[in-house]
Structures are given as structure tokens and as C-alpha cells.
Design brief:
Elements: E1 9-14, E2 17-22, H1 32-46, E3 53-58, E4 63-65, H2 76-84, H3 92-101, E5 106-111, E6 114-116, H4 118-125, E7 128-132, E8 137-139, H5 153-161, H6 163-172, E9 176-177, H7 178-184, E10 189-191, H8 193-208, H9 214-221, H10 228-242, H11 245-257, H12 262-266, H13 268-273
Parallel strand pairs: 2-3, 3-5, 4-6, 5-7, 6-8, 7-10
Antiparallel strand pairs: 1-2, 8-9
């Protein structure tokens, strides 16, 4: 695999660990280019027996994935192309999470910065996630945009944290710090920022060095849950809210107010709460 093949990722592999660095300035928005790159690299890795662990991180220390690109509705041709090649019964956003959840390798997120919306769904789709206490944050921001999570978030959250906390996360649309996320079970562990790299690297190397067959046996024993019906319900809910004029007004207003710029994304919740309904 060569980095020349991807416009939004940096990919390397050593000693059984593939490292995928998300690199889509200015805030790592999850747009069609990143979705295509992720699908290409993860599909290729599925059949690579030399890779046993995949670690995702970000080239931007502030933002892991800000959220789905708020301009994505303007790329209908590309979205339709991605939808045509997605598995049945999932939308293009859910397809990314499902691809991550069903990788044969162990998938790990190293979360140094913020992950909202589709970024938070990405984190919850991985097998494990570790966050920096001082700087990591997770949030399902969609309600402030007049929509609901549409990339698996409702299903992944309920599975991770329970229905009551999933409702809290989605309906408050707050940004949750790493310690709270860890206490809820949203991520595995919150660590001091200066220990995050070393800890995740050690976990990845140790898992990759396990005897042949162990990873496969464990993942076979603990399969990814089947969310088929739930993902269909989520897609219906997302489609019905995304098409509302109020959602389009809020998304457009958010962009005009500075969403998808580093300054605006630092307090996106406050920015979106200030957009007139």
C-alpha cells in the first residue's frame, strides 16, 4: 500500500500493525474522498494476513474527525456512486462503521482530539478506543443540526453505553470529555496525553505478536453484533429529519457561522446553539 493512492490518509505497516493517519485539513471532516479512501484501504487490508492490528489516529492533534462534511449534500453524484457499491441495508455513512466493525484485524482508535457526529460513530465502531484526558472529546452533535445520527451512532452507542446514556448523549448533544466517555464505556480508557502514544503502541504491538490463530479465535468468539434492523430504523429517522427545511436551515447557518473551520469547531456546540431556528 502506498500513500500516493489516498488523498485523505497516510498509511504505513510494520510488524503486523497497520497505522492509518487521517489527514483531511482543515478539521478532518468525513467527506466523500475520505469515505472512498477508507473503504479502499480497509477492503484491501481484509485480505492481508500480514496485518493483525489496525491503529487509527489523526494528523491534526485537535480533531480526529470533526464530523461528516456539512457540504456533503452538494455531492449527490459521488454519494450515489458510493451508495451503489455499499452493502445492502446500510447507507453510505453506516457502511464505514460496518466495515470497521467487521474487519478481521483488531481495530484501535487513538483519540487525541475531538470526534463529533460521524467521527464519534467511527470511534464507537472500532474494537477499542483510548483517549487523551486533557484533549479528547466525543459528541453526537446531530440534534443541534436538526437531524439524528445516521452513521450507526444510535446502534453503536446503545451497545456501548446503554439506552439511558445513549439518549443523554444524543439529545443533549454535548461534548463529553475522555474521563466521562471512559466511565460510560464509550471508550476503553482515558490516559494522560503524554502517555497515549506509548500505551496504544504497546497494546497494538502486543496483540500483533500473539500466537497465530489467537486473534481470529477471539474475534470469532466475540463477533460484532448484528444491527441490521436497527440500522434500517436509524436510516429512516436520519432521512426523514435531513430532508426537513429546519435541518437545512441549521446546517447552512452553522456553516455561515464558522462550522468546519478550526475556530468554529473548537466550540461547535456553542456555535450551533447560537444559530437561529
Amino acid at each position: 500500500m502506498t500513500n500516493d493512492a489516498y488523498s485523505t490518509l497516510r498509511v504505513s505497516s510494520e510488524h503486523g500493525v497497520a497505522r492509518i493517519v487521517l489527514d483531511n485539513p482543515p478539521v478532518n471532516a468525513l467527506g466523500t474522498a475520505m469515505m472512498r479512501d477508507l473503504r479502499t484501504v480497509l477492503t484491501g487490508l481484509k485480505d492481508d494476513p500480514s496485518v493483525r492490528v489496525i491503529v487509527f489516529s489523526s494528523a491534526d492533534p485537535e480533531f480526529f474527525i470533526a464530523h461528516v462534511d456539512m457540504h456533503i449534500g452538494e455531492e449527490m453524484d459521488t454519494l450515489q456512486e458510493l451508495a451503489a457499491s455499499a452493502p445492502a441495508d446500510v447507507n453510505v455513512f453506516q457502511a464505514i462503521g460496518e466495515l470497521i466493525r467487521h474487519q478481521p484485524q483488531v481495530t484501535i482508535v487513538k483519540l487525541a482530539g475531538k470526534a463529533r457526529g460521524g467521527g464519534a460513530e467511527f470511534v464507537a465502531a472500532a474494537d477499542m478506543a483510548f483517549g487523551a484526558v486533557e484533549t479528547a472529546g466525543l459528541g453526537q452533535i446531530e440534534a443541534l443540526m436538526g437531524i439524528v445520527p445516521g452513521g450507526g451512532g444510535t446502534q453503536y452507542l446503545r451497545n456501548r453505553v446503554g439506552r439511558n446514556r445513549a439518549l443523554e448523549v444524543i439529545l443533549t448533544a454535548d461534548l463529553f470529555d475522555a474521563r466521562t466517555a471512559a466511565s460510560y464505556g464509550w471508550i476503553n480508557r482515558a490516559l494522560p496525553a503524554d502517555e497515549l502514544d506509548e500505551y496504544v503502541d504497546r497494546v497494538a504491538r502486543n496483540i500483533a505478536a500473539l500466537p497465530a490463530g489467537v486473534i481470529e479465535a477471539v474475534k470469532h468468539s466475540l463477533p460484532a453484533d448484528d444491527f441490521t434492523a436497527g440500522l434500517l430504523r436509524e436510516n429512516d429517522a436520519w432521512t426523514s429529519t435531513f430532508s426537513l427545511p429546519s435541518a437545512q436551515h441549521l446546517i447552512s447557518g452553522g456553516l455561515q457561522a464558522g462550522a468546519q473551520t478550526p475556530a468554529g469547531e473548537r466550540d461547535l456546540e456553542g456555535l450551533m446553539r447560537g444559530v437561529e431556528h
